[in-house]
Amino acid sequence: MKVKDVMSRNCTFITPQTTLTEAARIMADQDIGFVPVAENDRMIGMVTDRDIVIRGVAKGADSNSSVKDVMSAKTYYCYDDETAEEVCANMADLKVRRLPVVNREKRLVGVVSLGDLAQDVNKIKVGQAVQTITDPANDQKAA
User: Fold this and answer.
1) Which CATH number do you get for residue 110?
2) Cβ atoms within 10 A of the Cβ of 103, count?
3) What is the DSSP letter of 54?
4) CA-based angle 120:124:91, to the nearest 5?
């Protein structure tokens, strides 16, 4: 099965000018932990709830500061035509629980999470991916 068959298509994205307050409100309203940042439907970064707290609030950023000041410009993503199994393995390697999904023109088309992948990928592989992502010993190996 392809990622496009299991991903969430109703992906919210924000612009770099979105304020930290607006981004946090979107995350709270939709019960999500990250939002892709895009311009002209091309992803240029992402902001997480952790980015807002660690790079924003903890460093004294004003709630009206824009997400461009705290977002991660280096983003990982997957293609909508990749297999669910390939993406699951990639998520384990990257130690991430969700990925923005782009088409081959690199236009943002959705988001896929480990939960979405569990619909198709062998449950053991998803469990192994979760274990790899959450195991603190793996953090030390990567450092």
Assistant:
1) 3.10.580.10
2) 13
3) I
4) 70
Within 8 A by CB and 6+ apart from 21, the residues are 63, 64
Q: Tokens 């707290």 — which residue?
A: 53
> 24 is in which domain, residue-wise?
3-142
Distance (Å, rounded) from C-alpha 63 to C-alpha 117? 35
CA distance 101 to 82: 10
Which pLDDT does position 85 carry in this prediction?
Answer: 85
Report the share of the chain in percent with pLDDT over 90: 43
Structure token pair of residue 48: 């997480």
Please, which residues have CB within 8 angstroms of residue 133's CB and are 6 or more apart in sequence? 91, 92, 95, 96, 97, 114
Q: Are 37 and 15 in contact (CB under 8 A)?
A: yes
Average pLDDT estimate for 112-136: 62
In angstroms, the CA 106 to CA 102 distance is 5
Would you call 102 helix, strand, or coil by DSSP? strand
How much is the pTM? Answer: 0.73
pLDDT greater than 60 at residue 129: no
